[in-house]
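Sample entry (333 residues):
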Amino acid sequence: MAQTTEVKTITVGAAVAAAGTTVRGAIPVTTMAGGSALEIPVIIIHGTAPGPCLWIDASIHGDEPEGTLTCQSLARQVAPNQLAGTLVLVPAMNVPAYEAGQRGNPLDTFSYDMNRIYPGRANGYLTERMAWAHSQWMTKVADLEISIHSGGAHSYLSETIFVNEDDKSVELAKAMGRGWEVVLSAISPKGNPMAVMLEAGKTGITVELGGRSATSPSEMNRVVETLVEAMLNVMRHYKMISGPPHYPDKRWKGVQEALLAPISGLFIPADGVECQKPMLKGEAIARIVDIWGDTQATLLAPADGMIFGLRALPNVTTGEWCCFYAKLNGLRD
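Predicted structure, serialized as tokens:
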């Protein structure tokens, strides 16, 4: 279980929350050329009873607003006088990327993708400095961290969790509850918040759900409601809020493989292909056709497993993402 502490006040950047309060604030980063402050918004919900600090990060990629909406919903639903411990919500971790609706920071072409250079450097490029400011407070305050991702502008990703494979990370993944059955080993041991939490002796996971082709009002509501319920279930598991937690009946383990387009054209999924449907090695996933409709390449399942993410737009250029595939190697305990 996560560490339990009793703290009268919680400070994150310029935000200071007394027990039993919800406070909005920000982590200062720098001042821009036009005089405006660059800062990372935070919401602190500080409970009235001892408990762990759960820290939830959203929009480290600016084209993935599902986590932002999840944070906003949690801020409305979680009452500090009914909370044990602390909930810290970061609704937009990479603010310039979020404002531009892009994966990375358009003001910084040297360290564009924050989720590859985290925790950055205090004296580095702009995105590195944002990451550094965030990491200093996160590792100081948080016991548990969840980064919320989606397929963004390029694809749709179904309910998938990446873990560090330590016991605490695997437990946090289980606490996400029913529907979160695909739990894969982290694809990158460095460069992201969950890796930094592990280095700090703490716990983190990365979760994926949503993206392009699931941005209609009804689909976005479904995605956000699913994420909110998972976050509430995590809080039930760690006894931060009341109520019985629920858990998956089974959980798969494995690793990700990103299947890239071997040729340009239109990406046409095979009949019956869908996310989290079991597949055998060699089964057809999709074909790529040229401008005349003639098949130029066929993508096959690289191993027994399942798709957990698919390209949204058919138009594809050589080397672009087509499919995120989970190569499964059994069930977790």
